[in-house]
Design brief:
Blueprint lengths: L5 H6 L4 H17 L2 H7 L1 H8 L3 H29 L2 H19 L4 H17 L3 H9 L5 H30 L1 H22 L34 H32 L4 H29 L1 H21 L3 H15 L2 H12 L5 H30 L3 H23 L1 H10 L1
Length: 420
């Protein structure tokens, strides 16, 4: 039986308020992360409207994720110092301006700049800072709390693609973009007001005991896993890039892929929605799993299953089989990115967690940006997506290798107290 923590109860950790706040945070992530998927939905329209190739039409998505990743570090550090209210207000304004200007863009350069400098930055305020903030409000249920928060990213992917596809077909992509920008401002500003209260974690005493399945903030020391903090962060960032280069291939190109196969953009948007809906289930399950077996083991499981799903794409081209594989891909890979946030909280001190979480998530987003552009470039060279899927499998193998290396360093450190 777990004894209650009086300090946590006073501070609001794992309280009713913490859960209500988590629901509000989920809503903010769902709204703000529309920026991650907008460019993929309008990719065929952008290609036709601006007269560019497949790789050129993939650049707005890459620009968005670069802005998302770099902006996440800035917003994460801002939230460490001032809380999440200011980043959310700034994010709402950036999204409103970004979608408005992108909808009026005369060429692909202006469209890219609006996505990279404004939409990416605005969306970043609704992801890494909120994930780090959610981790401060929970201790025993930190894994599931982080997973719920990050599920907003996939919930956005499940909700926005069919909605956007409907309005793009009805009123055009330009009017759709401007309407989304207005909606983001009107919805995110009230949500920001609900999250003004600062996280209480900084006022809590150090943790003295944790479940044996995961590392404690108080037990990590200066050399987590026997590595310097900088080395571990570097390895996590490289792993994040590798897994998300692989992840980007279906997520970014599925609409265009279905169009090439003759199934139409609407089927591609529905597959993306199905993929990300299944990803929500995967993220929640991975949070539950991380609380029991730790973030590293959860990450390895997700990486191996994602590699399997990419192999299935190589050999399945029918409409029904693509729907099935897309559902499996979402179910397999949805828990990968949340595992990084859990790993950071397991192996690093709480102080500065917003910046560290944002840095690792930035690496995953740079991987998505690189993978999205790379898949389009490989298609332009080969006029086929088969080579792009194989490229994703190779990057996925690199990710799995890094995670195995880190896991091999866990067991000796766990045995030391027993030997002493």
């Amino acid at each position: 039986m777990t004894r209650p923590d009086p300090a946590a109860a006073v501070a609001g950790i794992e309280s009713r308020y913490a859960w209500v706040r988590l629901v509000i945070t989920l809503a903010a992530v769902t709204v703000g992360n529309v920026g991650m998927y907008a460019a993929s939905i309008v990719l065929p329209s952008i290609q036709a409207d601006f007269g560019v190739g497949r790789s050129g039409a993939s650049l707005p998505y890459a620009a968005t994720l670069i802005g998302f990743g770099l902006g996440g570090v800035l917003m994460g550090r801002l939230s460490d110092r001032y809380g999440v209210f200011l980043p959310l207000v700034a994010g709402a304004i950036c999204l409103g301006l970004g979608f408005g200007l992108a909808g009026r863009a005369d060429d692909i350069l202006g469209f890219n700049l609006a996505h990279g400098l404004l939409i990416g930055l605005g969306s970043s305020a609704t992801f890494a800072p909120l994930v780090a903030d959610a981790s401060h409000w929970f201790t025993r249920r930190r894994g599931i709390a982080v997973a719920i928060c990050m599920s907003g990213n996939y919930l956005a992917g499940a909700v926005w693609p069919p909605v956007m596809q409907f309005f793009v077909a009805d009123i055009g992509w330009r009017q759709t973009y401007q309407s989304i920008g207005l909606f983001c401002v009107l919805s995110l500003l009230p949500l920001a007001l609900c999250l003004r209260r600062r996280a209480p974690a900084a006022d809590l005493p150090p943790v003295t005991a944790v479940p044996s399945s995961r590392r404690s903030d108080a037990l990590t020391g200066d050399r987590p896993l026997g590595l310097s903090s900088r080395t571990l962060m570097l390895l996590l960032c490289v792993a994040g890039v590798a897994c998300c280069v692989a992840m980007a291939m279906p997520q970014v190109q599925i609409v265009a892929y279905c169009s090439d196969l003759g199934y139409g953009a609407a089927n591609g948007a529905n597959m993306l929605s199905l993929m990300l809906t299944m990803g929500i289930i995967s993220r929640l399950a991975s949070g539950w799993l991380s609380d029991r077996i730790g973030g590293l083991r959860t990450l390895l499981l997700g990486s191996l299953l994602q590699g399997l799903a990419l192999w299935l794409y190589v050999f399945n081209h029918g409409l029904l089989s693509l729907y099935v594989v897309s559902a499996l891909f979402g179910l397999f890979q949805g828990g990968i990115v949340p595992a990084y946030a859990v790993i950071v909280r397991e192996y690093f001190p709480r102080e500065g967690s917003g910046g560290r979480v944002a840095t690792v998530l930035m690496a995953t987003l740079l991987g998505m940006a690189l993978g999205g552009w790379m898949s389009g470039a490989i298609y332009d060279l080969s006029l086929s997506y088969q080579a792009a899927f194989l490229n994703g499998i190779a990057w996925n193998a690199l990710n799995a290798g890094i995670v195995v290396f880190l896991l091999l360093r866990v067991r000796p450190r766990k045995m030391r107290p027993a030997l002493a």
